[in-house]
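ok so heres the complex, three chains, lmk if somethin looks off
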Amino acid sequence: MSTGNEHIEELVKRRYEPGFFTDIESDTVAPGLSEDVIRFISEKKNEPGWMTQWRLKAFELWQNMPTPEWAHVHYPPIDFQAISYYSAPKSAAKYKSWDEVDPKLIETYDKLGVPLHERARLAGVAVDAVFDSVSVGTTFRKELAEAGVIFCSMSEAITEHPELVRRYLGTVVPQSDNFYAALNSAVFTDGSFVWIPQGTRCPMELSTYFRINELNTGQFERTLIVAEDDSYVSYLEGCTAPMRDENQLHAAVVELVAQDRAQIKYSTVQNWYPGDENGKGGIYNFVTKRGDCRGERSKISWTQVETGSAITWKYPSCILRGDHSSGEFYSVALTHNHQQADTGTKMIHIGRNTSSHIISKGISAGQGQNAYRGLVQVQKRADNARNYTQCDSLLIGKRCGAHTFPYIEARNPTAHIEHEASTSRISEDHLFYCLQRGIGEEDAVSMIVDGFCKEVFKELPMEFAVEAKKLLEVSLEGAVG
Amino acid sequence: MSMLEALLAHEPAPVADWWAGVRSDHRALLERQGLPGRKQENWKYTSLRRLEKLLAEHVVEPAADKPKLTGLALPGFSGEQLVFVDGKCESSPDEGAAIGHLGQHLSADDAQLKVMLEKPFEGGDEGFAALNTALADDGAVLRIPAGAVLTVDLLAVHTGAAQAVHLRHLIHLEADAQLVLIDRTEPTHEGAAGLVNHLTQVELGSGARLHHVRIPPAAPQISAVHRVEVAVASGARYESLTLDRGGALVRHDQNIVLAGSEAEASLAGVYALAGESHVDNHCLIHHAGEGASSNQWFKGVLGDRSRAVFNGKVLVGQGADGTDARQSNATLLLSADAEIDTKPELEIYAEDVKCAHGATVGELSDKELFYLRSRGIPEAQARQMLVAGFCREVLADADESVREHLISLLENHLDGELNS
Amino acid sequence: MSVLKIDKLHASVEGKPILKGLSLEVKEGEVAAIMGPNGSGKSTLASVLAGRDGYDIDSGTITYFGQDLTELAAEERACAGVFLAFQYPVEIPGVNNVYFLRAALNAQRKARGEEELDSMAFLKLVRQRLKQLKITDDLLHRAVNEGFSGGEKKRNEIFQMAVLEPQLAILDETDSGLDIDALKIVSDGVNDLRDDKRAFVVVTHYQRLLEHIVPDSVHVLMDGRIVKSGERDLALKLEEDGYGWLEKELAA
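and the predicted structre for the whole thing:
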């Protein structure tokens, strides 16, 4: 640990680390949204007719939907005609190996601290990287193919595995689900597709990095993960964006399907650009993530560490349809400066003997506003449903806000639901104890915050946990004193 | 004619000009906005459909006989009493006494009452308060002088002779005054139906203390909308205890502002419901001053096809440091057709706070049941004992003058309704 | 005369066999100690006797005064005079201790065709029992076991036993978590209730309790069966040498 001013100065300089812009020639469509733009996107991607129609139907639905206003976040209306809906690195055509990838792109990942090339080999992580909206390469394709696992970009899946995509796309999050899901369905440009065959344990962690690069572009990726009977997969996503004065929109959709006895573990470290300390710029992160525990004894587990974005609006949810299925949600959400987050989960108990577990840790600093919004619903036939929810908030500073809006709806008398929540500032006793032992205030705070989040961090794969911890430290800079 | 039009067709007693102006403002607002609906977040789980149906079917008949008030006396009660029958005061308190009623002030220009009556209810979800403001022409006026200590039985009798009753109670406690208020509505005639729409405004001076025991009507044809607005000054304390035993549609809104430093509020409630009863408890405690503390504690058991809603909210404003707020809701579901929707909320804009809430939903504990049975208590009785014990806990904090009465109301109700 | 006779009892919990052919007989006035290592099935035996849900009897019989005990529901067993002092007495918020005990006593009296006690007569009985057990009445007015210390909970169990006057009392690890003073109060209470009719089954892990409640017979429960029976000196030998020698003896 470096000491005193030197350390703080260094921290202050560090600020938003991934905030660089990569100068790569890209193919970007003019701003605005219309049927023509959707046809253009679909054509550009050589999509079959059914896909084009699916998009157009979503567009039609979207045009008749009001923008959602119920979340505890405030922002000026978004001009959807000012956004460009397609941006792809020009050389993105097709890579057979990493050697063919534009070196500038690889440099980008190096700057991100994700030297994907190296990292993939060393850590045994298969990475699909989505740059703006187009997937640029997937490592470890061969090893995965041997196990029968399909891990590719969504565009590729649409052309190469149309029967799988058609069977599952939109079955968890239909086009009509909500405003941003409809928009995504109309304009999504890429994303990841994962299919784990029956009885297969995916031989490695799968990972995707998302990055928004171009100015005035929106990113609308679509991810679909299907785990067939008795299979297992762990999937990680990371997100970054350059520093821009303008707000940028990110409206992704993630659909998970777990069949009988299948397990999906989905982890996110979200570090989109949060805007500067005056609240200028930053990503609007309006995401729909939902998992369907379709089969009996299936399990879906969401873990998220949300430190970025100007506004986060997302509720990774589980539909517990199969008997004995279970859902988990572990979340750390941090808001600093002018960041706003309204995040949480929905656990919908439909099958018998279903269980859900929710651990949410919110940290508010500066003028950040942090809301947990959750729904636990036990439907009439969901005998013996069990839910435990714990949702804690930590306040750092006088002008931040921490809010809790849990909804509990129980329609079955055999349900056992327990919800606990607490909100407090960092305990002065804890802080004093650290200080008295010679630990500086900033370190003491980050130590205490780290302890506060421990339950969630331990759910992350090792290297992500380290990254998450570091991110939290960086994001909290200047929050103390 | 819509329900709202039918309700607004009622002609209240004429009042002073300024007041008539307030009335017509609220009437206009209502005509524009209508009564609240399920699109509004605060009415998400409570639909007015059944109320609408019951009011439409309700034939208003003057009661054949005068209500027998003697049977309604609180056992062993020795305080003051104020009685309203179908919205009109039956007592004749002295002018200028601590205990009066709004009917005495219709043409007067009383500054204190004016401030309270002029309070606007403009929100789309405040339709019933607007309705009350547009139509109320009677209610209790309690002005307790500094340091005085009083117990008042505020009895509203509902015979079914009116379609809807809108009482407006105005309560002001000067510094260090203490009031125990037993606020109850009793239907006197079999099958009495209709809407009881009460709005109570309370101002507590510094160090004052109000213990508010609320017993809404419990009859399957009667709907009750009870709203309480309380402003609590420094060092003052507002306590309420609500015993809900059912009703077609019962809606409580308790909005408490802890304005002064070290102000306190404690809202407790029991709901023991059977049949098709629907009870919705909404509480909002706004911590505005420093060092204030609050507690919300609601417990209930739901049988048959009954449904309960709990929405408790703690709002801690900027600068309300030293806040200590607690909130807890526990519900037992006794039937496959019962439903609970609970939403304990925290909205916090200050730093030095301690807030916690908990909610549980479950059935009777097998362990507890076995313990009782292993001592020889038959299962049905064991269940009843556990249910009664679960509910009774909350009533232990009731003022002595009314505690036994509350417990016997609860137990008779559990023996009858919930045990069948 | 035999109070309790268990014959080749097999019982399981969630399909897992716990008792595997357990046989035991307890006579009138007898104090039978059941000792055994952790996980041998001691608490399962206590629960099976009291009729707890979730404990399935696969085969064998339990006879209580010549009657098939397994036919009876938990409360019927209690009314027939079977009392279980729980290892972990449950806390029941809101249910007053005195009220609870009177309801229990009257349910049992009613089942036996006796008149129910009114509150005066009941309180008189309570006071008498308190005096007899030399314990104070400070716990009576609280909710059942709520906020009681470990010692207070066990004391409350013995007090309930004194009021309910069972014919067969099963003490499930009543000594666990007690300091020496609490242990003394509890065992004095039990000794006081001993007579030539009432039978006791004292389930314990340690010999310590048996210094205070001297048993007439000692039975060692291992792996779901009574593997050795003897007199008090068997308990002392177990205290001295542990259970290892028995395992060897059995394996031989």
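quick notes: Chain C touches chain B through 32 residues (CB under 8 Å). thats all i got rn
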